[in-house]
Each structure stands twice: as structure tokens, then as C-alpha cells.
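Dear Dr. K.,

Following up on our conversation at the group meeting, I've run the structure prediction for DNA ligase from Reinekea thalattae. I'm pasting the input sequence below exactly as I used it, so you can double-check it against your construct before we proceed with anything downstream. Let me know if the numbering doesn't match what you have in your notebook.
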Amino acid sequence: MASEQQHYIDLIAEINALDYQYYVLNESSVPDAQYDRLMAELRKLEAENPQWITPTSPTQRVAGTPQSGFETVTHRIPMLSLDNAFSDEDLSAFVKRLQDRMNSSETIEFACEPKLDGIAVSLMYENGQLVQGATRGDGTTGEDITANVRTIRSIPLQLKGSGWPQLLEVRGEIYIPKQGFEQMNAKAIEQGEKTFVNPRNAASGSLRQLDPRLTAKRSLEMCCYSVGFYEGGELPATQSELMAQFGQWGLKINDEQAVVQGVQGIVDYYNQLAERRNDLAYEIDGIVYKVNAFNLQTRLGFVSRAPRWAIARKFPAQEEMTTLLDVDFQVGRTGTLTPVARLEPVFVGGVTVSNATLHNLDEIERLDVRIGDTVIIRRAGDVIPQVAKVVIEKRTAAASEIKIPSQCPVCESNVERVKGEAALRCTGGMVCPAQRREALKHFVSRKAMDIDGFGEKIVDALLTANKLHSASDIYELQVDELAQLDRMAEKSASNLVAAINKSKQTTLPRFLYALGIREVGETTARNLAQHFTTLERIISASIEHLLEVEDVGPIVAEHVVNYFAEEQNVMEIQRLIALGVEWPDTVINNEALPLTGQTWVVTGKISQMSRDEAKDYLLSLGAKVAGSVSAKTNQVVAGPGAGSKLKKAEELDIPVMDEADFIAWLTEQGLWNS
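The predicted C-alpha cells came back this morning:
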């Protein structure tokens, strides 16, 4: 074989190995620029030598022209559905049925894995090469989506290693990770296109594109979980061993898989994964349990359309339908009017929901939502419930358009809509009781001035008693004034005054954040403080100087300049300082901080502090705190209950601190006093 053609073959192998690292192992061993150079070289060789092109070349993942339709595929072994369990009692009954059928009381070993919320598919490999992809369909026949699955880079075009059967049907779930889903919908909104209700619908719609080039643009991934038909080879004896073999063949598997024993094992697995569900990078709607040993699966057999040896434990639904009864507009601390849907109460995501956000006017227009409509409510984890979709087919003639207010519903000041913005805004400022209330709640909050015990009820009581008109009034409150409030004894009042006095010793980033400047969150406040070092310099900074600050763009810079241009805001700051609010004069330049340039991840539960507090400590030392572990992570702090992030850190050989080590280290840095 000519040396140039051998180089072509080696180049394909090198790029496919890099794709496996990046899309299956979530690692990267070369810079993007180097990868791009390798792809450019491959395309050049193929353009000059088209007769060399092989189906396993990474350039062949995307076909050149749209298809006219999908052919049907008959599954050689039906793709069955699973029975469902909804409680610990259901799982106990499932295990009891298995033991009764086997006439044995011995503990059964189960392979457990998350039930990904995506689309079930079948991949056929012949001599290790991908030859067909198909949807589950009705379980017996599906659609041929070969051209589309070839575009998914976590699916190998050629299996790695050796030892696979001559014909091997791999089954799994194609899904879109949360981040990819959010980016896809954000882009759709930006382009005025229809959005998807959830990641599952997005994955389904992406797989059924007749033009594979469109599918290739979607952030699809696939995790493999079983074998269908195979011949010309042998497979391992258990489900867990099969998954390990899949990994060796280059097929992506879920890293949350586990093998457990008996009822208690499967219940414990459900509980620990349910607790971490919202931290996962992808949506799951339950857990799948399978008897681990294949010989026992064979003994147990099937009933109608489901195997006896497997079951799915479902999580509470995250989407439900209900009726939109009315829409109110709530006023926030910056004057933004947020439309809130009042709903016929519905149980979704584990709680009863009667209110949901509609975000802004653009969202109302995009959804074309009306009062009286049947709507789909989505609630994922701790996310505020939102109206995800209107079921237009159920709209009646009685449905009415939402009335957009021209005056503030609280203070009756005029409402304006700034050109280019989706938000309505009350022009009343601190004259508006709603804005004043929310601004004061923000000022005293934990991440701002952190006045312990000064909660929402205290703010409301002081506003009602006409004793609070601005943030500076807080620092003139006396014990006898507070003691007159409902349910406020003298001791409680004394404690609150002590907390108010304690809050006077703060930091410049906290004080900036507490002021409630539009778009200035914790990170921006910290960046401003570290860049300018004093409040005086921030107040006098021009837009040009503000744009030099990390993460500050034109909009944020304009908000900062406008805030300090208001005389009443500067006077309020001067009054706060006169009343004793103070902070160190200078902020250490970030370049001198010990963790500058490092990326840390905090996972699990930290018993002696909150995750936010741990993050604040790290940020104060110059670190970037990320939400996921990657090859770029420098250190992981893992408390009890740490799961996939800890496992990933161990796989990548990233240093890990437990809680005790972390506390000891903070003590060494002078940040923790035990």
C-alpha cells in the first residue's frame, strides 16, 4: 500500500480516536486548532483521491442531500417497553414476583441505570462497522434513520478493539443534554422560530429531520444500554459486564450505572439518584432496574410486551396540562413587570403548582397564550414553574387576550417598554411600594448585606408601620421601635439591632451587589471591585473604563453609569457610609490571589457551610468555580453524597479534597475559624 494512502488510513484512525475522547469520554488531548488542521488535511486527501474514501471516515458522517422520506425497518427482536413502578412498595412487589417465579428467596443482583428522557434507537453493526440506525417505532417496526445517527459523534462508525459478534444490534437512548437544549431554544427564539417544550421532543424532532445536515447541528448524544439481535460471536454473562464491554468497543455508556443487591439496594439507588437528579447534565425521568445475570433473565422470560426481569421506577412528572385562569403582573426591585400565570392547581414535579412565570411580553407573544387556554406547565427541580406550551387544539371561543397594563398595578405610575427590550418597566422608582419592598429585601439578603433575622416579614412590618423608606433607614432603627412590631419581643429586637450593626462591616463587592444596580450580580460586583479597588473610582468611571472590566458589556456599563448619575442614589450611599457602613479601602488585585487561573468544582453536601458559601470562599481567593468536572479542572471539593462529578475527577486523576481537608485548608488561608 502506498505510503500516502496508509497515511490517509492512519489519519482517519487518529481523528476517530480524538472524537471518541471528546464525545464519549468528555476529554480533549489536543487543541481545537490542531483537530481542525487534521480534518482539513483529511478533506484535502479525499478531494485528491476520492477512490480512497471509506464509510468510517469522519467526513462521511453527514450526507450531502436531504432524504425524501424514511424507510421502515423491522426489528429482528422486538424493542419492548418496560413495566413501571411508582413507589418503594411497587419495587418490593416486583422483587417478590421474581423470587416467587424462581422459587427462591435468595437475594437478587440488579444492574441499575438512569432512565434517560430521550428516544430509543437501534444500531446495527456488521463486522464492527455501523450499517443501520432505526427508531423503536411501535416496537416491531421503526424508521430507518441511518443517515441521521451517523452525524452523532458519540456513535462510533467503526467499533474499537475486537471480539464483537459479526452482527451486533446495539440499543440505547439518543438525547439532548440540558445545556444543548437551552442553547437550541435560545437560538430559535432569537431567530423567531418555534421552540421545543422539552429535551425529549427536541431529540425526537432532530432525529426525524429529512436533511441530516440539520440533525448534525443539534447537540445529540447516545448512551447504549442493551443488545438486541446478534450472531457470529459471544457476549458476557451479565448486564454490567456487557456495559463494560461496550465501553471497550467505543460505545458511550452512562457513568451513573451501578450493581446493587436486593430490594434495599434498588431503593437506595433510587433515593441517591433522585437527590442528584437536577445536577445531572441531562434529563432523566426515572431509573431502570434489570436482573444482572442473563441466564436468570432467560429463565424469567417475558409477559406480552414487557420483560419480567426489568422494571422502570418513575420520578414525578415534570410536565402536566392545566388551565390558565388569569395573568397578573408583579413588580420587581428594578421596576420590571413580570407576567405571572394563575393556574388551575396541578401536581407537577413533586409539588402542587398554581402559579407559573410567563417571563415577559415577548414570551406571551411567542406562545400566543390567552386566558382560558389549556397549557403545558413544566417544572424541573427547583426551577420556577413555567408555561412551556399552549395546546392550541383545545382553545375555545371563550379564550381572551391578555391585557397589557399601561400603569403600574401597585403605584399607578406610567409603564414604559424600552425599545429593544422585552420587559415592561414601572417608572415610579422608590416611590413604588413594590420596588421599594423588593429592593429592601435584596439589600438585607444573605449574599448582600447579610443581616441575620431581617427577613421578608420584618421588611413588610416596617413598611406597614411607615418606618422604612430607604436602605439607610435600617441603620437608624432602635430596639424600642422594633419591639413594637407584631411578634417582636425586646430580646428579638436587640438581636436584630446587633445583626444590623454587625452588617456595617462588609466588603465592597457585597455593598455593590446590595445596591441593586440593574444587571450587576455577585460576579460583576466582584469584578468591578477588583478592577477599580475603591467605590469612588467606580462612581466616577466612564463607560469606556467600565468596558475594560471582565464580563462587563455595553448594557451593564450603561446601567452602572446611569445609577451613579442619579443624585439620590449617591446621597443614599453617602448616608449609609455616614451611618457606619464600611469596608476595606482596597481590594487585592486578582493576579495576586493564590487561586488565580485555577478552576475548582464543589460537589456533594458540605455540612459546615452551604455550597454557596464554599463557592464564595474560593472566588475570594481568585478561583473560577465551575459546575462540571473536565480535564481543565484543577481541584474538586467532594462532600458526602458526591456522585458522578467525584467519579469523573477520579477518572481524570484530578486532586480531590474531602470536607475535613477543605476546612483545614480554609483555616490555613485565614478564612475559617474553627
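Two things stood out to me. The mean pLDDT is 86. The chain is about 35% helix and 20% strand.

Best regards,
J.T.
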